[in-house]
């Protein structure tokens, strides 16, 4: 059943489902495998999944746990292109559609598109 509200629990489900797809993707997957390895169940990935759940919770639940700097790690990724971001967004859109009802999925898509746009601009892409 699609969720009609955003909770910390369904954010986690969404994040896990998103990175499961990402790891299988030949374009976006390698950037994550280089940094975090191929095993979503491992400790390094566990930390990333926590960070990303907190990141989305800071946006939608005014949860204060996220204290990071979202853009910084992307500066270290060599070889990012517009195409990589477009694929990231495609996978993200597909994921939110499997977790949330239409209006909430739209909110994630708009926000994801906005942030990806900012990242690309900051990276000069
Ligand atoms: C081409 C697209 C992207 C790639 C390949 C990518 C890759 C990565 C990688 C490798 C990390 C670092 C993991 C680590 O070393 O711990 C990271 C962190 C992160 N990414 Fe992305 N990313 C992309 C787009 C985005 C977008 C569009 C968003 C937001 C909507 C986003 C949000 C974040 C956040 C919040 C972090 C954690 C920052 C922190 O440590 O506080 N990423 N990403």
The fraction of residues in strands falls at under 5%
Please give the number of β-strands. 0
Mean pLDDT: 97
Architecture in CATH? Answer: Orthogonal Bundle
Instruction: Count up the helices.
Output: 6
Bound small molecules, which ones?
protoporphyrin IX containing FE
Rg on CA atoms, Å: 14 Å
| Shape field | globular
Sheet with the most strands, sense and barrel status: none
**Termini, distance in Å?**
38 Å
Which spans of ≥5 residues are poorly predicted at pLDDT below 50?
none
CATH level-4 homologous superfamily: Globins
By CATH reckoning, the class would read Mainly Alpha
CATH-defined topology: Globin-like
Helix share bin: 55-70%
The helix/strand order is HHHHHH
Which structural class matches the secondary elements?
Answer: mainly alpha
């Amino acid at each position: 059943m699609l969720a009609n509200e955003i909770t910390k629990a369904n954010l986690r489900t969404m994040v896990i489902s998103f990175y499961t797809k990402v790891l299988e993707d030949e374009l976006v997957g390698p950037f994550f495998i280089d940094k975090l390895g191929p095993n979503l169940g491992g400790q390094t990935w566990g930390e990333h999944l926590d960070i990303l759940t907190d990141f989305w919770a800071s946006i939608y639940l005014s949860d204060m746990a996220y204290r990071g700097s979202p853009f910084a790690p992307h500066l270290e990724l060599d070889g990012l292109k517009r195409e990589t971001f477009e694929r990231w967004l495609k996978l993200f859109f597909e994921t939110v559609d499997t977790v949330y009802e239409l209006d909430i999925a739209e909110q994630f898509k708009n926000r994801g598109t906005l942030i990806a746009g900012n990242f690309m601009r900051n990276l000069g892409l």
